[in-house]
Amino acid sequence: MKFYGKTLLLTALLALSACSSSPEQGAGAQMADADDTCGASQYQNFVGKPMTSLEGVRIDGKVRAIPYNSAVTMDFNLRRLNFLGDSDDKIIRVYCG
Question: What are the transmembrane regions (predicted)?
Fold first, then answer.
């Protein structure tokens, strides 16, 4: 009787796991697009370069270069492109916010 109960439970669990839905591929792509409202993905090639490499580069929209240990406002703007620098004056992160 114990074997029958365990088998029944295992079968029920397997049946329930087969009914679970997986996220659609399109949903992940939409999330990535929503996170990149400022176009940061287009400027990832600046990571590792000196902050001075931004001089003379024309970027449409709001841009903020943040040198190491600088004070910045805490306002969050998804349409603003941010370049974050490290102590060696190299760009370590490009992101929206």
Answer: none
